[in-house]
Amino acid sequence: MLSERMLSFAVQAMNGHYLKMKPWEEDRLPRPRPGKTYMLYAHVPFCISLCPYCSFNRFPFEEGKARKYFLELRDEIRMLSDEGYDFESMYIGGGTPTILADELAETVSLAKSLFSIRDVSAETNPNHLNPAVLDPLRGLVDRMSVGVQSFDDGLLRRMCRYEKYGSGAEILERLQETAALGIFKTLNADMIFNYPTQTEEMLRYDLEQILKCGCSQVTFYPLMVSPAVRGTLTKALGKVDYSREREMYEFICGMLTGGPNAPFRFGSAWTFSRTEGTMIDEYVVDYEEYAAAGSGGMSFLDGKYLVNTFSLDRYGAQIRSGCSGVSGYVEFNKRDAMRYRFMMQLFGLRLDKKQWLKDFGCSVAAGLPAEYLFMKTAGAFGHEDENEITLSAKGRYLLVAMMRQFFVGVNSVRDEARKEAGIDLAQMING
């Protein structure tokens, strides 16, 4: 698809321009602005073992290190309260946030006592869908996102997930049992498509399991390859072929949202929900500004993308000295900020033109003439009036491709932060 290739190339070029990190010289985050709505992100960088395709900050689990880290994480959350921040929503990512359920529960309880948090989303893996992990989180976590990736046993083995999390049939059973408990308002299954060896039959099988797993939401990410994991991912799964991506995406959309009695509706370009108004993994859609706590966490505040140090030792030292965990930042100018808004709101299926005019002092077409014209000419807009722009079916796929390339760029920032911290991810993955 020519428009997808042009768009991917353009986003890749933009990433090279504005996702370049500089050292952070301040002790704290920028102060919150009166009347601004913020979200809190907390990062838990521990896993039992490391998957070959993930570029997030993560380390092999050691209980002593992890408990010490949770103490530091809570101290940083207290700092955010001292700085005057308040949050409506909280997202805990990883790593594996549920690696120590008691520590996670204490962290969420603290955040709820300090801030006006209405909903909490956390990530987990299939092996943690058991009472010992889930019971402490009852009444604290509203949305649980489970890293399934695929139900195909062959793919699970190649990703080194079969031995850790069980077969596809076992994962399906755990999801069904968890859904039946009704602990979480939203139970999300995180899936990946466009694996190098994935066939249409394998993808159909994944979708059939999703339709009967009981989850109220599913997120289908295209496989994303960052420089730090390209070698290990290619070795484990093969070389990614983006020419199949659109066909696979449209197949997913057809099975989940097609027909008069479709079981799911779009929550974002790659999130599918059974009901409206549920939280999604891409919190950046609903909250343009967010503050992060934890090693490897990333904030977006006051036009700056702030990256917390990837070094656990340095993170602990900064927190103990009364400083935030930030080690580097990326500065966004007005045009960068407009591009970011354009991408994130359209990915969330609706761009608010009146809010755009209020915030940027110009129309979308005047602020981003090339981007606007390209998307309009490509047939990406489904509806446009004086209030909003929404996406066509083609536009949804173009936003999937755009977000894929953007997150590859964000992963490059992570790679840079990891290098600055002296961490060799490939060595950790390979043991």
What does the secondary structure layout of this molecule look like, with pairings?
Elements: H1 2-18, E1 22-23, E2 39-44, E3 46-47, E4 59-60, H2 63-82, E5 89-94, H3 101-114, E6 119-124, H4 131-134, E7 143-149, H5 153-158, H6 162-165, H7 168-181, E8 186-193, H8 200-212, E9 217-222, H9 230-237, H10 245-257, E10 265-266, E11 271-273, E12 290-293, E13 298-301, E14 304-308, H11 312-320, E15 326-331, H12 334-347, E16 350-352, H13 353-360, H14 364-367, H15 369-377, E17 381-384, E18 388-391, H16 393-420, H17 425-429
Parallel strand pairs: 2-5, 2-12, 3-4, 5-6, 6-7, 7-8, 8-9
Antiparallel strand pairs: 1-15, 9-11, 10-11, 13-14, 14-15, 16-18, 17-18
Q: Describe it for me?
A:
The structure is a single chain. This protein has 431 residues and is α/β, with parallel strands linked by helices. The chain is 44% helix and 19% strand. The protein has 17 helices and 18 strands. Helix 4 links the parallel strand 6 (119-124) and strand 7 (143-149). The mean pLDDT is 90.
Provide tags for this entry.
18 strands, 9-stranded mixed β-sheet, 4-stranded antiparallel β-sheet, alpha/beta
> Count the strands?
18
Please tell me the overall pLDDT.
Answer: 90
Structural class: alpha/beta
Distance N terminus to C terminus?
39 Å
Low-confidence stretches: none
* Physical arrangement of strands within the biggest beta sheet: 10-11-9-8-7-6-5-2-12
The count of helical stretches stands at 17
Please indicate the percent range of residues in DSSP E strands (runs of 2 or more): 15-25%
Give the radius of gyration. Answer: 21 Å
Overall body shape: globular
Helix content: 40-55%
Q: Tell me about the biggest sheet?
A: 9 strands, mixed
